[in-house]
Amino acid sequence: MTTLAIEGLCLAAGARPLVRDVSLGLKRGRVLGLVGASGGGKSLTVLAMLGLLPAGVRQTAGQVRRDGRVLDDAGRAALRGRVAGLVQQSPRACFNPILTIGQHFTETLAAAGLPRRAIAAHAGGLLEEVGFGAPAPLLGAYPFQLSGGMLQRVMVALALARDPDFLLADEPTTDLDLVAQAQILALLERLVAGRGIGILLVTHDLSVVARLADEVAVMQDGRVVEQQGARGLFAAPRHPASRDLLRTHLALYGETLPEDAG
Fold first, then answer.
1. Which of 4, 35, 162, 254 has the fewest CB atoms within 10 Å, measured from its CB?
2. What is the pLDDT of residues 186-238, one digit of tens each?
């Protein structure tokens, strides 16, 4: 089984620790949800897997493994696009506003070695896969001409361009309306079922976790404080941070944790 894992990850900014001893494993055909409060280190963990840490943040310990093999910096960079596609939040900020959607695909697919004469057809097929019934007009459109939900689906299509084994999806439904959120979640479900792709799904929304995740890891203050199957987490969260997250989620629906009843 194809796997991608990060083990013992520690990140710091100067002398301040940001992520401490985090280990996560991904498998094809499975969805791992990574949840926790904002600022807990979830997004940095995703970026560290691909060697994309922002300036001022450094890795002080830990390693990335693909199928059990430890990767050096070059090996981690080689994951990008080919093994793991990245889907980020706030899609509008991730596109070059002066390039058309077609030009974004051209840059991505040409870098992957696809002949230019084949790029438009391949891009159209990817756009169809993510739900665009008539993809040809989109290739000539600029990012500002598309809604946030449309741009997020285009980003997923770009992430699939090199047929990766995994998607690292960082808050893929943030800032989208409910219809667009539903479209993205349905798309991710189809990709798992149809492609057998594995997904690391970073989210603060436990309803997304309940729908998609097979397993859930809860982060607090840079540490994974609990990891178990999604059903187990919702039925019997073990750590106080997990219980607080679930308690807040249930309160939205006028429900309480069983331990709070009575």
1. 254
2. 999 999 999 999 999 999 889 999 999 999 999 999 999 999 999 999 999 99
